[in-house]
Amino acid sequence: MITCNIGLLCLEWRQVCDGIVQCDNGADEVGCHDFELQNCSSDEFQCRNSMCIPNEFLFDGTIDCMDSSDEQEVEMIRRIFGSCPTTTIWECDERLCRKDEFSCGDGQCIHWSNLIHHQYSCKNARDLAYQCEFQGFQTVANSICRQIGNGGLPSLRNSTSCSLGLRHLLVGSERKISWNHIITHCHDFIQYPEQPVLSPVLKMFYNKSRIVSFYAGQNFGLPLLKRTPDLICLNGTFICNGTLITSANGTCWSFESYLLFANLPFFPFSYLFCQMVKNELQNNLSRENSQPLIINSQSFICDEFFYPMAIRRINDGYIDCLFGEDEQNDQYNITLPYRYRCSDLSITQYVSYHLLGNGIEECADGSDELSNALNWHYFRCDTGEEYPCWVFRSAYIDNIDRVNSIQLSFHRYCDSVRDTRDGHDEKSCSQWVCPQDMHQCRTTGQCINKDDLCDGDFDCDNGEDELNCSVAKSRWIFEAQCNNTKEHFCITQHFLINQTLYRPCIDYWKAGDGQLDCIGGRDERNVFVCPDHTILGDRFLCDNATKCLSHTVICNGIIDCYDQTDELICFWTRHNCSRNYFPCYDNKTCIPDRCSPKYNCRNNEHLFWCPNPSEKLFNTSTASVSGIPTKSLANPKLHGYCNRGFYLWSG
Questions:
Q1: What is the pLDDT of residue 162?
Q2: Is residue 459 part of a domain?
Q3: What is the DSSP secondary structure assignment for residue 113, as one 8-state letter?
Q4: Closest by alpha carbon to 166, among 186, 139, 137, 188?
Q5: Average pLDDT rounded to a whole number, residues 1-27
Q6: Do 21 and 45 fall into the same domain?
Q7: Residue 477, C-beta contacts closer than 8 angstroms, at least 6 positions apart
Q8: Which residues form each disulfide bond in the chain (predicted)?
Q9: Which of 116, 138, 241, 338 could bond 146 through an S-S bridge, CB–CB 3.0 to 4.6 Å?
Q10: What is the longest distance spanned by two Cα atoms in the chain?
Q11: What pLDDT does 268 receive?
Q12: Is the dihedral of CA 61, 65, 70, 76 positive or negative?
């Protein structure tokens, strides 16, 4: 049994021995360094959480490490963990979250920074526990967020609780009564939640004068513009280097400054408290403030830590020191097994095998996602019998490092899909021989599926697969000006200047030649490489070919390019359309989502820069609530944060 004070939110078993001190007395990390520094035997693999498993279980498509560090982060694993909020399976029940994550208590893990900005909350809203009012919800019994209805808060009648009045006001309940209640019963700074939630030394305060002045004009029909606290303060008692230390004065930040801490790699406030009491807290937190690691043969100590960490954590692709000094570290030059060397040899950087192709660029040059050898996204270890699994396991099978010398599979050359960073796999294909069931592009020699002919997408680099096609019903009337046997639709600078003298068309052979002829780079969509090392595709290119924007920002009334071409390309008048609305050519109609089948313009001009409708469109929009961009929370109607048990659903 651990005696522990971490604030209102109870210590979860996944937070014990996670490398971050949560309890004010440090009880959650006592003795953990023995477990941290243990070494597995030669026939075993050591998981990120120090657990040992047989080498035979490594990269076999089945999770054996509780933190899943024995498997590549493939879509199958994401689906399993994605189901944790709604299903009860052992993978969720036994799952450990990473050091940079927060446990939702049911197997779901979210990035720790959501404790600050709540952009991607737990499905059960555990990250909002005791502070649901930040998002306009009510905190009811057991810290649960009530997302529907107004019956969760106690009545203000006969109450002298300052915080209760604030809670009513934050959710928009009885604003005038709440406002008067705050004036009568609250001090200048209102602590809410009334006790620390995330850490015993992290406290939040509202400025009474801001709230009172907002409704001074009796405008009670308006919601409070800012529901987040005004001040975040560090003070109280916490263990630092094995000694309990009390700081009465502490230090405070504005909420806007508090948001900046979300850029740190993991929950930092216990370490910041100890730095503060040592008068070492810097205003500009950066890696430059850190000191070199203290390294011996078995362990190292970060400058800001007290407990030692195992030497295997150096250069593994995970940041374990608050300022990242354990990564890109050239002090330690021993390469451990299961490490991929990033392509940029000017820096010392490695990532663990299981991070390859996970959609996140851990390497500074992005070579863990797309290298000059291959696209790691397509090199997937889904089941133990697959070739990629054998390559990943080869470090223990025959002590040969095949990952760092891997080459692209022969069948992925000249298939019209760019699989390497420099694109060499789609060049010099003129002598390529395509299978009989595929179509060969006449100019480039690339092989494409016959089903891709006339599908609305450029598959051949110059788009010749979209010539001589039957006219699609859903195309802009302006496109009819082009000769479909030899031209592509293209809005050029000349056309913008004079729509009478010039047509919005170019010869097809000008597409894919590396020369930008169309505004937005539409003619080079299959060959131009954006700064993120991926093909332009359906994105919009602007600002001297330095910026690639989502197709959703085109002609929405908001200038996203310095050269303004994202708005100028719609050369007609916007008339009275609001921001984020698309103006139809008729000077009358405004539609909110131009690529959605729900809305349309009479002449289909809204479709001129939309992805193929057969492809799935992802909604990446966010709303802003109280100054924090958020995703709308689902309403799971869950009672409590169940762990190792069953969910209880309300009727």
A1: 94
A2: no
A3: T
A4: 186
A5: 88
A6: no
A7: 603, 604, 605
A8: 40-52, 47-65, 454-469, 555-570
A9: 138
A10: 87
A11: 93
A12: positive
Radius of gyration (C-alpha) of the chain in whole angstroms: 29
Is the pTM higher than 0.85? The answer reads no
Find where tokens 């216990």 sit: 270
What is the C-alpha separation between 506 and 483, in angstroms, rounded?
9
pLDDT average, residue stretch 323-328: 89
For 187, the token pair is 């001090």
DSSP code string of 396-438:
HHTS---GGG----GGGTTSSS--STT-GGGSS-TT----TTE
Nearest Cα to 100, choosing from 315, 320, 277? 320
Judge whether 61 lies within some domain.
Answer: yes
- CA 651 to chain CA centroid, Å, is 34
Give the pLDDT confidence of 453-474 residue by residue, as tens digits.
Answer: 998 889 999 999 999 988 766 7
Two tokens, residue 616 = 């799935």
How would you class 317 by CB atoms within 10 Å of its CB: exposed for 0-12, middle for 13-18, buried for 19 or more? buried
How sure is the predictor about 503, in pLDDT bands with cuts at 50, 70 and 90? Answer: very high
Is there a single domain that holds both residue 200 and residue 239? yes
Which domain range does residue 67 map to? 39-82
CATH number at residue 583: 4.10.400.10
Residue 367 lies in a domain: no
Give the H or E element holding residue 636. Answer: none
pLDDT tens-digit profile of 132-141?
998 888 888 7
Residues 50 and 13 placed together within one structural domain of the fold: no
Distance CA(94)–CA(120), nearest Å, equals 22
Q: Burial level of 513, CB count in 10 A (0-12/13-18/19+)?
A: middle
**Residue 305 to residues 149, 271, 285, 364, 481: CA-CA distances in angstroms?**
46, 7, 15, 25, 68
Under the banding of pLDDT at 50, 70 and 90, the label for residue 155 is confident
What angle do helix axes 175-185 and 162-170 make, rounded to 10 degrees? 150
Q: What Å distances lie between residue 216 and 169, 180, 202, 227, 247, CA to CA?
A: 14, 10, 31, 17, 37
Residues 72 and 113 in one domain: no
Residue 22 in domain: yes
pLDDT digits (tens, 9 = 90+) for 372-405: 999 999 999 988 788 999 999 988 888 888 999 8
Instruction: Give the Cα separation of 522 and 55 in Å (integer).
Output: 50
Q: 401: burial class by Cβ within 10 Å (0-12, 13-18, 19+)?
A: middle
Check residue 438 and give left, alpha or beta (phi > 0: left; psi -120 to 50: alpha): beta
pLDDT (0 to 100) of residue 193: 93
Q: What's the token pair of residue 437?
A: 């069931």
Distance CA 569, CA 555 (A): 7
